[in-house]
């Protein structure tokens, strides 16, 4: 398949880029990837997206963005890109999981970010069997049970609050003595009687049964100044939700595009342009600071306008 603007990813950045590209009559193609809708597809309440007085749902917002992009003339492909070829310049080649090749005169990278894990062997063992990174996906299965949320940022606060709709008690485990979440979220967490904070603690091990495979507890150890000599604590829980942030989904582009130490694609100042002319990066693949749906959408707009300008100059 050949197109003028090829877009990888289908979160707010990808759909906004597609909308602007389609309205410029550039017939964009969006390859939706492994998680259509991006992180908003696994987010429940969205309270801060401009234009909505009432609380909206993340999956619904992504459905609306997709419908708008399709109506404007975007072609949407369900595939997972496993290889990119950028070194020869335009047209850029992206290879799908089944071997299909997509050629784009320009390329917009909007592949978003993925959940970060603790890196414990026991965490991997019970992943999908009590260990999760998505409360929206799996919270229902823990109705009336005690669960733990690991983290102290916005994601952890939102996950903990959401889980109170199902769990009898939510243990919030944070390696520091204060949360990093927005103040309004901190206040909600600390006011909620179902949420029990465990400050200066980290998960040392996930404990559970083998037959059937399932989580029964987590072993916590002290962090910070009080770690020396402090005894480990075993906390009985049926589920563990890891909410320690995300890593940019930029593995395909390592060695092909400039990145910072954390894997975020680097672009020119006040631009989405990478060092390869015709290749642009928008959303969480290049934003390590704000990481909001509205900023991702704004960068998607920027990328489409810059791609359109590049094509117009070539013509």
Features:
about 325 residues; alpha/beta; FAD/NAD(P)-binding domain; 7-stranded mixed beta sheet; 5-stranded parallel beta sheet; 7 helices; about 30% strand; elongated
Summarize the structure.
It contains 7 helices and 19 strands. It is an alpha/beta fold.
What is the rounded Rg?
Answer: 21 Å
- The CATH superfamily of the largest domain appears as FAD/NAD(P)-binding domain
Assign the structural class, choosing from mainly alpha, mainly beta, alpha/beta, alpha+beta, or little secondary structure. Answer: alpha/beta
Q: What is the rounded distance between the termini?
A: 21 Å
Instruction: Bin the strand percentage.
Output: 25-35%
Mean pLDDT: 94
Net shape = elongated
Element-by-element helix/strand order: EHEEEHEEEEEHEHEHEHEEEEEEEH
Overall number of structural domains: 2
Helical content class: 10-25%
- From the structure provided, what is the oligomeric state, counting identical versus distinct chains? single chain
Low-confidence stretches: none
The CATH topology of the largest domain turns out to be FAD/NAD(P)-binding domain
Count of DSSP H/I helices: 7
Q: Report the sheet with the most strands, covering strand number, pairing sense and barrel closure.
A: 7 strands, mixed
Count every beta strand, where a strand is a DSSP E run of 2 or more residues. 19
CATH architecture of the largest domain: 3-Layer(bba) Sandwich
What is the level 1 CATH name of the largest domain? Alpha Beta
